[in-house]
Design a protein that fits this description.
The protein is an alpha+beta fold. It is 34% helix and 19% strand. It has three helices and three strands. The chain has a three-stranded antiparallel β-sheet with strand order 2-1-3. A hairpin with a 5-residue loop joins strand 1 and strand 2. The longest helix has 8 residues. The protein starts with 11 loop residues before the first strand and ends with a helix.
């Protein structure tokens, strides 16, 4: 949309390597800016290409909510 990578507008959850909740971000872009890591790395974590980035695991908020509901 107007040159914006809409994948970066997806809300994400930051988890420790052990899977404990750290923080929720309204977008991958926000997480990227605050953590000083490329949004591509967060996208790759959320898609399963990477296990972690910047010492944390990353998951899309909707997927996190599905896991919590199980």
């Amino acid at each position: 949309v107007n040159g914006v990578d809409t994948r970066t507008l997806t809300p994400v959850i930051q988890l420790t390597i052990d899977g404990e909740f750290v923080k929720e971000y309204y977008s991958m872009r926000q997480a990227s800016r605050e953590m000083g890591v490329s949004s591509v790395n967060i996208i790759n974590c959320c898609s399963g290409k990477y296990k972690s980035s910047c010492g944390y695991r990353w998951v899309k908020k909707d997927e996190w909510e599905k896991r919590k509901g199980q």
